[in-house]
Every structure is written in structure tokens, then in C-alpha cells.
Specification:
six-stranded mixed β-sheet; 343 residues; homodimer
């Protein structure tokens, strides 16, 4: 059952919000690295950088610089200054979210640090929209990033090792996307959100994150349709974050078991951002930046033009650390659903 | 200027919210380890555990078990089931917030993962209160934890090394606090929040976190007083999270420079939770769990009884990772202010 504010009854266990006063995505900014600039979505990004160090000495600082650049782009497109933003919601993949802390520090916006693995862009957009819809400020900023260099170092091996990558592995996108969510009318509004639960099928292979995340995506899509009393046909497309080629197939199968056919409607940012064959990216792209830059660069323009009227955007995350992995823990997933509409 | 909802004017740069319909802290649960059970606050905690592994094989799993136990305690005290909770806001200190992901997984509550270092209990309470006040559900759950064993391994040295600890260092509290925030009237309400900005004085000593965090606490307290048009006298006490003995002195000095004297009003959870001399905890306690269990066990009962009418609770966090530290980055701080009132 959809809830529309204080006076509505809240169904037990229901996890969605339908906004009475939908907030708008006022502007966005996206910055990517060299490999993304050679991929199929290249022309859609605001800024492509051939120097993956973004002028820094370390991968971590590079990611911070990239994130700050995305924020500044989003602010300048909306003709806003950092002090116009009430709250910032941001996060990344690195331990203790350090790319975000050091990236947005200079903006001096009151901030909420988030961690939702690659689902963080969904989490940040959901909280931004919830804040604006509640009247806690006219503008919030949602930002996330990932960087191939820092992520490989964090989760796998330093790049200098030149390790081999299994076919199920995904390539972390070097990119950052920032979104101003506000009350000022634009052509895209966030009409609702479905907040994800942790879904754990007991998978332990951190090199097959598509499989780890697909059950969470299926759960969130299922509950989104149920909570909003919609069918798949009510969406022009359903776009997951970074399930990649393997997770995509699993998602289709899991939903089919529940009688939901999204085969024709499903897209995945991790499948769109790289050319699998020529770019040698195995199961596809991944990382907080993957869904964020694809939304900012490729998805929002289509919504603005009205090419798509209503879509469900579902960033997906795999909740693991090298420590939990080494200790034999499973890799549960989480996915947040954001309903975006042309207006 | 205080903002009270959609129709109020929002002052530029202002970072506080005054709730028109204040949410209540309906119940709380706190669980601590062996060292905390020997400290001055021992008798106030719901559960003290002499087995710091909490029945697990690893420190990380121990922290997860402890966090789940705190949630279950808070739920049972409020006579609620997990499915009665609309959203969970939680986080911890470990990389990729793994103690929380694996700790709350079994509850199956739609969740927002957070990272605010030791300020996370403030961040979780702020977002919980903002959600409930906005009508996004009748009940939310805010939970945070820290564990001495997992934190030493994450940030410093494995316990087996028996390394020496500098006098400025703080002792990470083994503990978890969970709070049900809801619309159901209790004797303590969250009447407002002041969301913190990242404050960076350029300090680089990760073994002196009190000094790194004190400027952020000073900034948040300063803006809380300004935004709410209050003076120090309007609070019965101002309680920071884990500045410890060194951060405490710096905070007093920094605010004195702005003409604000909190000397008589200031308390710090990190100074209260251990006996500095007999427990050999150097500059005091720290960790997400420090502020959370002190709030749940010691502070809330005083508010309930009306011994304190209105207090400002300010959990403080140091935003660093071992990678940022090794790369020579500074350790900025962040602090969130929660206004708690007897009712």
C-alpha cells in the first residue's frame, strides 16, 4: 500500500514512500576516467578525464578530486553555491568512506556520510528526496563515486600486480555523479522510493558480485511493484545499477519465478557503460560511480526529453569487506528503488 | 534561525531543524563488554557481557552479535517486532560498515547504512527523527556499535601485538546502543537536530582523536546555539560523544574564544565510561558505541525522570582510514547535535 504522508495508514512491513510533493532533480554533474571515455556512453558524460589520477598523487585523492568536481559541476549547472545546499548525502566504496569525507570537505555543507556499497547512489537520492519532500531545506546534494585504482587496492590487488580477473568479475567504474535534489521545478521528479532490505542467499564469491546482488534487486523491484500497486508495464524501463551480464540473467529468472517478466524492460548500467568485448570488462561495470554517472549522463536526458515517462532506477550493492570475505562470511546484497518521472 | 517545516523561511547556510511534531525515543537497548562492565557506568547498562567474543569466532562477528542483541533489547522493551519498524539507520567503524550489515541482516528491516565514524549515533538519531517527524513511518530504529578488538585490528594493531598506547590515545568502547524513535509518546523527545559540517584543523595524529574532533564539536555547538537562538543556560548539560580528556579541554578553549563558556555544563561520554586511572584508558573512551551506550544507559534515564529537562547530545567523529593516514592526509572531524527534552 502506498503511503502519502502523515495521515495515511502505514502498512506493516511496507518499505516504500510515495511523495505527496515530489522533489525534483534540479541538476546533475558527472565526471569519468579514461576507460569510461572510450565506452559506448562516452559522449553523454559532462567531463571525461584522460588522467585517471585527476591531478593527484594517490588513487584515493584522485577519487576525492573527481567527486568534488562532480559536485561543483552540478552546483554550477543549477547556478547555486555550496551555501545554498541544506544537506549533503554522500558515500563511496572505500574503507571509512574516505573519498567522500576528503572530497566534499571543501564545500562545507552539513553532511550525512553513507555506506551502501554500489547502491549508495540510490540511498543518497532516497534520503535527499525524503529530506526535501519533508521540508528540510529547498536543496540537497546527493553524490557518490568509485575509482578503479582505489577499489582494486581496497578490495582485490594493487594494480601493479597485474592479476588475472575471472570472467564473473566486474570492472569498477572510475566516475562520480552528483545530483541537486530540490523543490525547484525541473523536467524530472522523484515521485517515490523503495528502501531495500539486506538479502542474503549465502553466496561467498566476491568476484561474482552480480550474483550476490541480483536477489536484492529482485526483492526491491518486487516490493516496489507491490507497494505502488503497479505492474512492469507502468515503467518504461527498469534500470539496475551494476548487476552486469551474470546478475542480469539471475534477476530475470528470480522475478520470473514470482510471475514477473521484466526481460523486455530491463537495462543495467554495468552492461551499458562498457563494450564488453572490445574493452575486456568481463561481466560488466560496477562501483558506486557506475549507476551514478549513467543516471546523470544517459538516463536523465531521456527523462527530460520525455522519451521515457516513468522509470524505476535500482542501484545495487554487495555488502562485504576484505575482512568479512577472509573470515568466510557471505556477501549479502542491498538495492534501493528510485521512481523517476518526466514532468 | 530555526526552521519548523515546509512553510517556514530557511535561512541560508543554517544547518538545524526544529521539529514541529517532535518524535520520541520510545525505547533503547545497550550491551557492553567486560571492561565497560568494570567502569563507573556499569550498573546502568542493560547487559554486560564478560565474553568479549559474544559467542563468536571473530571480533567482527562479535560486534555484529552485540549490535543485533542491542536491537532486540530495544524492540522487546517497546513490545515491537522487527516488522513494526519502518526503517533502520545504522553504522559502525569497520571498513564497509560490515558489523552493521551482518548484525542487522536477520531483522529484515529496510535499511540505510551510515558512516560518520564515532558521530554515527548522532547521524542515525538525526535521520531517524527526521523520518518519523516527516511521517515516513511510526517507528524507526537507530543503531551503532564499536568493539575494542575489531577497532584495534581495523585502525591500529591486532591485540596480539600488545603494542604500547600513547597517552593521547583513547580506548574504543566495546558496546552497542539501539534506539526506537517513533510517534508513540514517551518521556524523552528529540526536539531538534543540528547536522554537522566537516571541520579540518589539519591535525594528522590519529592517536590523538580528541584533538582532531574538538573543532567539529565546537562548530556544531556554536551553530546549534545560533540556529535555535539559545544560550548555554538553556541546556542542563551539553554532552559530547568521545572527545576524552584532551578534546574536552580543547573544546572549552575553542568555545571560550567565541565568548561561549560551557565549562560548567560540559560532560563527555568518553570521560564518563571508564575510570581513567584504574582502568588505564589514557585519554578516555571512544568509538560509535561509547556515545550510544552512555545515552541509552546513563543519559536517557535522567531525562526520563526529569532530572535534566533539556540537553544537547553531540556525538563526535574523526574521519580517517588507515589508507588516508598512511598517505599523510589530515584527520578532519564531524559532530552532530541532538536536542533531547524531558516531556
Amino acid at each position: 500500500m502506498v503511503r502519502k504522508g502523515r495521515k495515511m495508514e502505514f502498512a506493516k512491513g511496507s518499505q516504500s514512500i510515495c511523495f505527496e510533493h515530489s522533489p525534483y532533480i534540479v541538476s546533475s554533474g558527472c565526471v569519468v576516467g579514461s576507460k569510461e571515455s572510450q565506452g559506448p556512453l562516452s559522449k553523454w558524460f559532462d567531463k571525461t578525464n584522460q588522467d585517471d589520477l585527476f591531478g593527484a598523487d594517490t588513487w584515493e585523492e584522485a577519487e576525492s578530486n573527481m567527486q568534488k568536481e562532480a559536485c561543483v559541476l552540478a552546483l554550477s549547472k543549477a547556478n547555486l553555491k555550496p551555501e545554498d545546499i541544506r544537506y549533503l548525502f554522500g558515500g563511496d566504496l572505500l574503507r571509512q568512506g574516505i573519498a567522500t569525507s576528503l572530497g566534499v570537505e571543501a564545500l562545507q555543507i552539513p553532511m550525512f556520510g553513507l555506506y551502501g556499497a554500489c547502491s549508495t547512489s540510490g540511498e543518497a537520492l532516497a534520503l535527499s528526496a525524503m529530506s526535501v519532500a519533508a521540508g528540510y531545506g529547498n536543496c540537497t546534494l546527493a553524490v557518490t563515486s568509485s575509482h578503479f585504482g582505489s577499489a582494486e587496492k581496497e578490495f582485490r590487488f594493487p594494480l601493479g600486480y597485474a592479476n588475472q580477473r575471472p570472467l564473473a568479475s566486474q570492472w569498477t567504474v572510475t566516475g562520480s555523479g552528483a545530483f541537486i535534489v530540490g523543490t525547484k521545478k525541473s523536467q524530472v521528479r522523484i515521485s517515490g522510493v523503495t528502501v531495500g532490505k539486506i538479502v542474503d542467499y549465502g553466496l561467498k564469491d566476491s568476484q561474482n558480485m552480480g550474483a550476490c546482488m541480483a536477489p536484492a534487486a529482485a526483492d526491491t523491484i518486487y516490493w516496489n511493484l507491490k507497494d505502488f500497486e503497479r505492474s512492469v508495464e507502468d515503467y518504461d524501463t527498469i534500470i539496475t545499477g551494476d548487476l552486469g551480464y551474470i546478475g542480469h540473467r539471475i534477476l530475470i529468472d528470480l522475478l520470473a519465478q514470482k510471475g514477473i517478466d521484466i526481460q523486455e524492460k530491463h537495462k543495467d548500467c554495468g552492461m551499458m557503460i562498457f563494450d564488453q568485448k572490445s574493452q575486456d570488462t568481463n561481466a560488466g561495470g560496477s562501483g558506486c560511480g557506475c549507476a551514478a554517472v549513467t543516471l546523470a549522463g544517459y538516463i536523465l536526458p531521456k527523462l527530460k526529453k520525455g522519451e521515457w515517462k516513468r522509470i524505476l532506477f535500482v542501484p545495487t550493492g554487495a555488502l562485504m569487506s576484505t575482512v568479512s570475505y577472509n573470515e568466510g562470511a557471505s556477501v549479502p546484497g542491498i538495492a534501493h528503488g528510485i521512481v523517476l518521472e518526466h514532468c
